[in-house]
Design a protein that fits this description.
This protein is mainly alpha-helical. The chain has 19 helices and no strands. The longest helix is centred in the N-terminal third of the chain and has 37 residues, at 76-112.
């Protein structure tokens, strides 16, 4: 049974966890108003670079702190030393990364972006600093969730969200159609919250360093770090590759459409993070590692919510984008509307991917992930190299779809000897794939001429599929038994 505390914390983590990134959605109308599509495309590249820096300096401690916190929680002195050592180690990495890019950043950007004018100084350097502070914030967020400090998690994320929105909008207003406003504005916001995190950590856990204590986590961190790096390439290198074949305005259009659909990602990530520690705990208690009915309920619920969100977002966002474009007379962004349905399909595939990747964290089996994701990225990269020259943005999207199918297959076959899956085939696989197939087939045929009718049909279809898939649960559903 699901407790009231779990439901409360789930709501808090879902809402609060989405706030810092949700600022990207809140800012979209202001980007339309103050930035041209090509300037926005350049901004997307710098923001992707800042995320890479975040991954480099956090060195996967945002993931390992979930797992290893519980090993020390009964020994307060050792726990304090462990957490303090993590943040000091990340500070050292940050300093090294900053020095490397300060010396070689200009040359690196010249090699990566030979066709367009994306310079390291000053915006790349500012992005390095932004990524460093984002890394500290991310690790602390994982720590708060592991400690089940839902209220602190909420307030800190609320402060971050507010500051990012205020400083970025202010920067856009005072420096329209210029990268200075949004890049510096975001830096000021994340620097403030990052400093709050560091002060809070060292007040609570002290300022002591013991590398020997961290060694126990590095067996987890090394492959997980490689996995995160490859995941960054898998998720962001498409924009870098697009600079070789397409004008930067097209990158802006593609990224803008993707950002609109972050509403789905934020909701799913918040919900996933709310139950994932519970899943880890359940698997840890098992002698035979496998999925259970309760674990499946969490992931099937995640898939069901994804289907509903995809339908509603495909219906809503084209209408909203068209209204803002008309209001601000920025017709360059209209081209993003046609990509919304196809990009939404990727979230249906990702819902399956959540399930497939879970056992690797649950049983701390991280070693093969870098190799697996190197293979997956290779498939996606090969697809993009073949498809982008002829199909442009659609080539990127198709390559992403292919890589998700490959990812799920590789993850399953890589873990099946160590972890047993018992799934409801319809809820886990058939339902999202039916929705994805409908959108993929119907959108080119009817989506442009009869967009509202077609997109409304997606919502009805999604509800119908879920009603059929959960028909037995609906019959016996009693709220008084669900909540204790």
């Amino acid at each position: 049974m699901i407790s009231k505390k779990f439901i409360r914390n789930s709501v808090i983590y879902t809402i609060a966890g989405s706030l810092p990134l949700a600022s990207a959605i809140i800012l979209l109308p202001f980007y339309i108003k103050y930035l041209s599509a090509d300037v926005y495309g350049a901004l997307a590249l710098y923001m992707g670079f800042a995320l890479l820096i975040q991954i480099l300096i956090s060195y996967s401690f945002d993931g390992s702190i979930y797992v290893y916190f519980h090993d020390f929680k009964n020994d307060k002195a050792k726990l304090n030393l462990f957490v303090s050592s993590i943040f000091i180690f990340v500070l050292i990495i940050s300093l090294v990364i900053a020095i490397i890019f300060l010396i070689f950043g200009g040359w690196i950007f010249e090699q990566v972006f030979p066709e367009i004018k994306i310079l390291f100084f000053p915006y790349g350097l500012i992005s390095v600093a932004t990524g460093i502070f984002q890394g500290f914030f991310k690790i602390n967020s994982s720590l708060l969730q592991t400690q089940e400090k839902a209220s602190s998690f909420l307030w800190l994320n609320l402060v971050s969200f507010t500051l990012i929105a205020i400083f970025t909008i202010g920067g856009l207003y005072f420096f329209p159609n210029d990268l200075l406003g949004p890049i510096v504005g975001r830096f000021v916001a994340v620097a403030f919250t990052g400093l709050i995190v560091l002060i809070g950590i060292y007040r609570q856990f002290g300022f002591r360093f013991n590398f020997g204590l961290l060694k126990s986590t590095l067996s987890f961190n090394h492959p997980s770090f490689g996995y995160q790096i490859i995941q960054w390439f898998n998720g962001y290198y498409d924009k870098v590759l697009m600079t070789l074949y397409m004008p930067i305005a097209q990158i802006g259009i593609y990224d803008f459409a993707s950002k609109c659909l972050l509403a789905i990602e934020f909701a799913l990530a918040g919900l996933y993070n709310s139950f994932f520690p519970k899943v880890l705990g359940m698997v840890a208690l098992q002698t035979e590692k496998k999925t259970t009915i309760e674990i499946n309920r969490y992931y099937n619920g995640l898939t069901a919510i994804t289907i509903l969100l995809v339908g509603f977002c495909i219906f809503l966002f084209p209408v909203v984008i068209e209204w803002f474009v008309t209001q601000f007379d920025k017709v360059g962004y209209l081209a993003s509307i046609q990509w919304i349905p196809f990009l939404a399909v990727t979230y249906l595939l990702r819902s399956i991917r959540f399930y497939a990747v879970m056992p690797y964290a649950a049983i701390k089996y991280q070693k093969p992930l870098p190799l697996f994701y190197l293979l997956i990225f290779g498939v996606k990269l090969g697809g993009m190299l073949l498809l982008i020259p002829n199909y442009g943005i659609m080539g990127v999207i198709i390559s992403t779809w292919i890589s998700y199918f490959v990812e799920v297959a590789v993850l399953y076959f890589g873990i099946r000897r160590k972890f047993s899956f018992k799934v409801n085939i319809f809820k886990t696989f058939v339902a999202p794939l039916l929705m994805a197939s409908l959108v993929t087939v119907a959108e080119p045929l009817f989506g442009i001429q009869n967009s509202l009718l077609t997109h409304g049909a997606y919502i009805i279809f999604g509800i119908t599929v879920l009603a059929w898939g959960y028909r037995n649960e609906v019959k016996v559903f009693q709220l008084s038994k669900l909540i204790k």
